[in-house]
Amino acid sequence: MDKNTELTLRRNRSIQAVIRDGFRLYGQYFSRLLRSSWIQAIIYALVTGLSMAYFFTYLLPPLMSDYHISSKLLIWLGTVVAFLIAAILFAFAGGVAPLHDHSLTDNIRRPQHWWGRWPWKLTFKGLSKLPRMLWKAVRSHQLGTLIVVSLIMLLLVVIVMLLLMMPAVIMGIANVEAAAGWAAGDEVDMPDNLFMLNFAIFSVCGFLQAYIHLTTLFPLYYIWGNVLMKNKK
């Protein structure tokens, strides 16, 4: 049995097999996933860096001091909306679109252009079908598998992020301590270019974060395969 046959969508899998084969599929095609979504990953990273830098530099200190922050909060919420849009674009370019290829051909094709994929039609179609897909998972008795696998993936992602994104964790702690000291009236010795420093660190870590989070789609892909097989019976 070749690799493509082993990793086909059209098989029933246990919870262990769903996670194992999801990671195997991600690793086997990682270079093509990267080529498909590197621009979207950069956009995701920059928006992440902007949102986190603005929060820690301009929003957190007055927030801890009970200052009037309505305008700053609105600006930050705007960055959060941009982050969500960037995350959706990245997820479909680097995960959903390649997995859609795999569901049809048991293979993930190389992107046709150097700028990767921009699967606009699939994005809108996928978002509109998401509630129906969840309902099919419930009807197929796969909701329990979905919950268990999601919790396991969440735990693994948190562990990996703590290990690989330590600079962002350290920077976040330093920002919180500085904001607390500022709120207490203490003199805080932080660099003048704090915003740019936050932006640089969180942007670099955001790029890594994007591809760590992308792994979660691949076990979910095989849960969807279970749903399809159950509906055939």
Task: Give an overview in words.
The chain has 233 residues and is mainly α. It is built from nine helices and no strands. Helix 2 packs across helix 9, helix 3 runs antiparallel to helix 4 and helix 6 runs antiparallel to helix 8. The longest helix has 36 residues. The chain is elongated. 33% of the residues are buried.
Write the layout of secondary structure elements.
Elements: H1 3-6, H2 15-28, H3 30-64, H4 70-105, H5 120-139, H6 143-164, H7 166-183, H8 194-214, H9 217-232
Q: Which tags fit this structure?
A:
mainly alpha, 233 residues, 0% strand
Number of separate helices: 9
Distance between the termini: 25 Å
Specify the biggest β-sheet: none
Instruction: Report the helical percentage.
Output: over 70%
- What string, H for helix and E for strand, traces the elements in order? HHHHHHHHH
Radius of gyration, taken over Cα atoms and rounded to an integer in Å: 21 Å
Which residues form runs of ≥5 with pLDDT under 50? none
- The average pLDDT score comes to 89
> What sort of overall outline do the alpha carbons produce when their principal axes are compared?
elongated
Question: How many strand units?
Answer: 0
- Structural class of the secondary structure composition? mainly alpha
Strand content: under 5%
In brief, what are we looking at here?
The chain has 233 residues and is mainly alpha-helical. It contains nine helices and no strands. Helix 3 runs parallel beside helix 7, helix 3 crosses helix 8 and helix 4 crosses helix 5.
